[in-house]
Amino acid sequence: MTPAELAGAFQAMGLPGYRAEQVFRWLGRGAASFGEMTDLSLDLRSRLEEAFTLTALTRLRRQVSQVDGTEKYLWRLPDGESVETVLMRYKHGCTACISSQVGCRMGCAFCASTIGGKVRDLTASEMLDEVIRTGLESGTRVDGIVLMGIGEPLDNFDNVMRFLALVNDPAGAGIGMRHISLSTCGLVEEIDKLARLHLQLTLSVSLHAPDDETRSKLMPVNARHGVDQLYEACRRYFAVTGRRISFEYALVRDVNDTPWHARELVRRLRGTGSHVNLIRLNYVSERGLMPSRPETVRAFTKTLSDGGVTVTVRRRLGSDIDAACGQLRRGEMRKR
Ligand code: SAH
Description:
- The protein has helices at residues 3-12, 17-28, 42-51, 124-138, 157-168, 188-195, 212-218, 227-241, 259-269, 294-306, 327-335; strands spanning 58-64, 71-76, 82-90, 93-98, 101-103, 118-121, 144-147, 180-184, 202-206, 246-251, 275-280, 310-313.
- By secondary structure, it is an alpha/beta fold.
- Bound molecules: S-adenosyl-L-homocysteine (SAH).
């Protein structure tokens, strides 16, 4: 519940507004039960327990990278399902990479999260709890969020928007929209819907190929809207919000990393002001695709920057702890 909704519900129970604020603060600090809210009377705590349901994620596993301090959490949800959150440490602060669904139904050929399909959407409170618990368990302040964990956030649109409002609220985690990135495999209608909300977040689009033939091999979503429609939606998004889009491009050996792909990407993106984030594919044993060779990554990067496209190669973090999307949950499922 947002502070306003909580205040409304408290008012209906004949409780003063400041009580709602008190409870919202407790929840933001990670209280998992009303019993923990020690500055409320015992009588009030039991009334709240009857009127509301509080759920909390519990920690199944925590892995800390010996290489770079990246932390990975596997959480148990109230119904026994599990999802992952990754905490990445940068000079300018800590960013949590959170999951938005249990599994995913988008079927990308290189991704571990989609094996086994989608089980269910995460609720707004479960996503918020990923942020709060990651802060508590790691003992650090979460300064930024990327919606790049398990799931397709725009396939869980309403819950994700509700989560964004909650995590943005100054009375709660207070994480500014400019510190939030949302990554999508490219759902065109939802990109338009998001544009209309004028949020100041960064939209990342998982492109992974500049052309229909290659992209359709890697991403089934491309059958729904081809790359032309996707580029158009991105152009509209920028026109409406004034926020530049960042494209993700995972380099897969001999599939999307040839000189032709680099030139075609330049042709499509030059002059749009878009940014390309190259990722060396994380090897997922079930998927049979290989990461590009380092010299190919260098050549690809050079073609892009020579062509006037701003490009960065994503630094690998947490490679010793299966930190890539969906790997930890996969491991847990294999054990069952
Ligand atoms: N569903 C959203 C967000 C989650 S995935 C999306 O598709 O954007 C976050 C990013 O990781 C996406 O760009 C996705 O394509 C990429 N990704 C998935 N599996 C990967 C792998 N094995 N190696 C490198 N990147 C991968």
